[in-house]
């Protein structure tokens, strides 16, 4: 953190911090925030739906076991191997892309807006670990929803949506918020997958890597300032999260 | 006319017949306990009445209206669950208010009703507490108030006291009965605790293997069990597998022991019967010269102190009996003492056994 406030001669300065508000650094923060929020929102939303579908009464237990095992593996599958898995699958010469092309359906022609080597592509790759992570984190909370609560609500006259409105969602909310923050942080700090998919991608972890390794310019103090900026963003997220979480979980104190 | 009717209800889970044709007719304002061991079908029956499950055959009628296929949220039934089922995100007041809120009646009279119910269950001082801040007994009181808030047509209680400690259990069961009588609400209560069922019910139905073995008042169930299972399940019972020697005099024989039993009069000679004798019917005294008629001689094997009463197990040739006697008198009959147990000819009950069927398992009366 001290390095963020020093120049190359180790003199104190705010110039690195000042630079964070200039192009291209502020754009990098917006890029990181965009990817993180989109993948956290999508991962949370679809993750909780998939987890609920697997856990709810009536679903065969083996589905849950398979899903949990897969999620455990997939949530930890990231970095360069994940990026190359996507390139080999959905890249211009990927297996799926080629398969479609040979079948007369050229994805690059029919669906030109999708490029794996783009921000959307990075988000798609991130979803591969964001969604399973949400499933792993939220499954115990869904398990904690007692069948008796639903039956009691029904017995007292509530319809299904009223149970969720008054009981299910409020009870899940603290866990959901916690999981969302985890997913946000997970995406915000991810580096290798985005780096492998698109080195020109303007997100903060890639800039930090560039400045640290001297890939573009050798300026470790600017890299430290960028890292300090990430810390501030996460701190702000936590400041937003804590009162929300406290409010959502006020009944459990 | 019956207010709640369960008509020939059947429910199978795969090959298991959870309910095999049960019939119940309960009058308005009456309290019926479904009593039986785990897996006998009592909770299945309650869940069918609540609407959480559907019968494979048969029907449920409340106040003349068929409700078998009515969804649970339209049945107007209040239920208290075995597991604590209060909504954890709501305090005691909000929990009780929930059903009224769903109906849009939680303000004005509804609000007063919530206050009245919380007072009725003795929790006026804890309305702002969340479930985790309440003891188990308090949580079940709130659950009871919540179930009553919607003015249900039938109150259903699924072993509501089983998770509570013994003292609270006794206290709360008396409160449930008091409130039930005060509100005059028709109540179906599920329990495996025979003492609980006998203590608070107008009627008791003992279930086993998906059927009702016997239904009657608590006194009838205790004094005149109709089947070996009921005899074993309700209270403690000495059970003697016997044969009628003389149907005119009522003489029966068990392991060489000849007894005069009034209930055996009119029975066919040679008929196999089960003689049932309550421990409190036996009179124990120290053995002296001679053996009085209709008595059993043996040695005191164990004594179990039960407070004002001591349970004494006597073993003799071919059989064992247990007797309950005052603790003061039991002191004069220590373990090892030779005693005589008088068996009153009027006190014993009789149940027919199949002539060619297997004999009863040799149950230890202490295990009953």
Put the structure in a nutshell.
The complex is a heterodimer of chains A (253) and B (368). By secondary structure, chain A is mostly helical. Chain A has twelve helices and no strands.
Provide the helix percentage of chain A.
over 70%
In the CATH scheme, the class of the largest domain in chain B would be Alpha Beta
Biggest interface and residues each:
A-B, 19 and 32 residues
Overall tally of structural domains of chain B? 2
Number of domains of chain A: 1
How many strand elements of chain A?
0
Fold and architecture overview:
The complex is a heterodimer of chains A (253) and B (368). Chain A has a single domain (2-252), classed as Orthogonal Bundle (MetI-like fold). Chain A contains twelve helices and no strands. Chain A has helices at 15-19, 25-55, 61-74, 79-90, 95-102, 107-110, 119-143, 147-155, 160-188, 192-197, 204-213, 220-248. Chain A is flat. Chain B is an alpha+beta fold and 368 residues long. Chain B folds into two domains: 4-229, P-loop containing nucleotide triphosphate hydrolases (Rossmann fold, 3-Layer(aba) Sandwich), CATH 3.40.50.300; 236-354, Beta Barrel (OB fold (Dihydrolipoamide Acetyltransferase, E2P)), CATH 2.40.50.100. Helix content of chain B is 24%, strand content 34%. Chain B has a six-stranded mixed beta sheet, sandwiched between helices. In chain B, strands 13-12-11-14-20 form a five-stranded antiparallel beta sheet. Chain B is elongated, with a radius of gyration of 25 Å. Mean pLDDT of chain B is 90; it is low at 359-368. Classes of the chains: A mainly alpha (253), B alpha+beta (368). Chains A and B meet through α8 and α9 of A and β6, α2 and α4 of B.
């Amino acid at each position: 953190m001290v390095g963020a406030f020093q120049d190359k001669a180790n003199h104190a300065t705010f110039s690195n911090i000042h630079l964070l508000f200039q192009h291209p650094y502020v754009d990098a923060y917006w890029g990181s925030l965009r990817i993180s929020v989109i993948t956290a929102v999508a991962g949370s939303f679809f993750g909780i739906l998939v987890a609920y579908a697997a856990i709810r009464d009536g679903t065969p237990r083996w589905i849950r076991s398979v899903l949990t095992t897969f999620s455990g593996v997939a949530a930890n599958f990231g970095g360069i191997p994940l990026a190359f898995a996507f390139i080999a699958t959905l890249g211009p010469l990927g297996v799926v892309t080629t398969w479609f092309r040979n079948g007369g359906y050229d994805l690059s022609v029919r669906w030109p807006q999708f490029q794996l080597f783009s921000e959307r592509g990075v988000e798609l790759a991130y979803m591969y670990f964001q969604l399973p992570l949400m499933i792993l984190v939220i499954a115990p909370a869904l398990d904690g929803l007692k069948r008796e609560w639903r039956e009691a609500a029904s017995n007292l006259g509530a319809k299904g949506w009223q149970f969720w409105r008054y009981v299910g969602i409020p009870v899940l909310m603290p866990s959901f918020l916690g999981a969302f923050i985890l997913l946000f942080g997970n995406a915000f700090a991810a580096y290798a997958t985005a780096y492998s998919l698109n080195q020109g991608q303007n997100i903060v972890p890639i800039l930090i890597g560039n400045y640290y390794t001297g890939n573009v310019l050798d300026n470790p103090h600017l890299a430290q300032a960028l890292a300090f900026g990430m810390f501030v963003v996460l701190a702000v997220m936590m400041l937003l999260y804590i009162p929300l979480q406290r409010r959502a979980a006020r009944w459990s104190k | 006319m019956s207010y709640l009717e369960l008509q020939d209800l059947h429910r199978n889970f795969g090959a298991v017949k959870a309910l095999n044709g049960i019939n119940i007719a309960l009058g308005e304002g009456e309290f019926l306990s479904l009593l039986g061991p785990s897996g006998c079908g009592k909770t299945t029956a309650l869940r069918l009445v609540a609407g959480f499950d559907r019968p494979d055959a048969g029907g449920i009628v409340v106040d003349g209206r068929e409700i078998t296929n009515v969804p649970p949220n339209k049945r107007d039934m209040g239920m208290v669950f075995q597991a604590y089922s209060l909504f954890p995100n709501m305090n005691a007041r909000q929990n009780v208010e929930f059903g009224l809120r769903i109906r849009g009646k939680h303000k004005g009279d509804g609000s007063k009703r919530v206050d009245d119910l919380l007072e009725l269950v003795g929790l006026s001082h804890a309305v702002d507490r969340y479930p985790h801040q309440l003891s188990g007994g308090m949580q079940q009181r709130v659950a009871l108030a919540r179930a009553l808030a919607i003015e249900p047509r039938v109150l259903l209680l699924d072993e509501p006291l089983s998770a509570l400690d013994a003292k609270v259990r006794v206290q709360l069961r008396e409160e449930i009965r008091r409130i039930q009588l005060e509100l005059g609400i028709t109540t179906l209560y599920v329990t495996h605790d025979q003492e609980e069922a006998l203590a608070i019910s107008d009627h008791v139905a003992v279930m086993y293997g998906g059927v009702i073995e016997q239904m009657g008042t608590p006194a009838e169930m205790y004094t005149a069990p109709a089947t070996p299972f009921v005899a074993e399940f309700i209270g403690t019972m000495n059970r003697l597998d016997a044969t009628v020697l003389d149907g005119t005099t009522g003489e029966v024989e068990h392991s060489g022991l000849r007894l005069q039993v009034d209930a055996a009069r009119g029975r066919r000679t040679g008929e196999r019967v089960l003689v049932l004798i309550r421990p409190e019917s036996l009179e124990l005294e120290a053995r002296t010269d001679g053996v009085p008629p209709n008595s059993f001689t043996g040695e005191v094997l164990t004594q179990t102190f039960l407070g004002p009463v001591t349970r004494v197990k006597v073993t003799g040739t071919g059989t064992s009996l247990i007797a309950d006697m005052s603790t003061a008198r039991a002191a004069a009959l220590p373990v090892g003492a030779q005693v005589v147990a008088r068996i009153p000819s009027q006190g014993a009950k009789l149940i027919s056994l199949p002539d060619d069927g297997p004999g009863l398992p040799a149950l230890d009366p202490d295990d009953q």
